[in-house]
What we know:
Layout: E1 2-6, H1 19-24, E2 35-38, E3 47-48, H2 60-66, H3 68-72, H4 74-77, E4 84-91, E5 98-99, H5 103-115, E6 135-139, E7 143-150, H6 153-167, H7 179-184, H8 190-202, H9 209-229, H10 237-249, H11 255-258, E8 262-268, E9 272-275, E10 281-293, E11 299-300, H12 310-316, E12 330-333, E13 336-339, E14 347-353, E15 369-373, E16 378-390, E17 395-399, E18 403-406, E19 412-425, E20 430-431
Antiparallel strand pairs: 1-3, 1-18, 2-4, 4-10, 5-11, 6-9, 6-10, 7-8, 7-10, 12-13, 13-14, 14-19, 15-19, 15-20, 16-17, 16-18, 16-19
Amino acid sequence: MFVGISNTPRDYAWGSPTxxxxxxxxxxxGGPEAELWLGAHPGSxxxxxxxxxxxxxxxxAEWIHxxxxxxxxxxxxxxxxxxFLLKILAAHSPLSLQAHPSPERAAxxxxxxxxxxxxxxxxxRNYRDPFHKPEIIFALSDTxxxxxxxxxxxxxxxxxAELRAVDATMDDPQPAALLGLENRLVGDAALHxxxxxxxxxxxxxxxxxxxxxxxxxxxLAERAAFLIDxxxxxxxxAELATVRSLAGVYPGDPGIVISLLTNLVTLTRGEVLxxxxxxxxxxxSGLGVEVMAAxxxxxxxxxxxxxxxxxxxxxxxxxxxxxxxxLTPVVQADGVAVYRPDVPDFELAHISxxxxxxxGTTGAVxxxxxxxxxxxxxxxxxxxxxxxxxxAGSKMTLARGESVYLTPDEGTITFAxxxxxxxxxxxxxxxx
Length: 432
């Protein structure tokens, strides 16, 4: 069964006023458009375009609740929920630093907060459901910038050495401002201890040491820009540019300094990051397709006026310095690349056919075709071009800006035409 779906973009303040509309060819709202949600998450379930197809259900959440066997298939019907959420995300300004819990931590935290009687809507609630929230981001813009995972402390010391060199060029050198950070970058728990100190002292602490450090780091980043304009070579120019950008949005926030502890990543179009449990991250700018487990559990770590539970965050964070977690696809056929993170909730197929394609599987009249086999429910969105989509029992035209929910009984899905489609589904699908 194919069910056309749509939604209205979420108007979070950090969203772009033009990027989602420009991608999908839809009218811009005139305000920020941050995320287009396609899924059954209660926060913004996708709207069903023709409720007559779903027994009158107006959105995916209602339909799944009323008829899980049809909507989800036998394997997922017992759970009664769609395990993933597909989004188009457009960051015009930086999002908060954050991390997500493991399945075990989410279940335990949710139960504890329920037992404590904390309302689900409370601002200081950490766990709004018992599920984890791993995610991937596929860059659609030419560049997509993010902070992701912790750097090796040796590299952080290199950044501090660069800041000391810049400090020496100031009219009022203040090298002592960096000492509190440098002195804590020792031992096996260095990153844990530094983040603990930055958040506790920087969000209401009495010493003022972190406030001075943040102020000084921003001043040195601004000085570095002046030196670069004059022809000087600065090794961590991109990181210091990020400091300046963050300071413009979140002045005085200790997350500005935490950004120097993390990897600064610039994705080009088509590159993908996988953000597992415990990974500290923040999207800074760009347009992308995001797929995540359907959860609302976020532990914030700075760059936000919202609640930060420092103790819970420190327990959730993975402080192990690791390489940037790029996710490479399994290329199943020409124009069919599948991204499979090591989680049971979702995978993402990227289907692409150039307008002048002559290669690949073609129909009787020479129309390029691509195929993906479902083993669970799927959600597809067309971001360019136009396709005839056909399954075991349904077919429809899917054009730029349109989305469809596919039930698992449709089996092998054929996309005939040209353009670009993203298909989120549960793991196990195989292209042909």
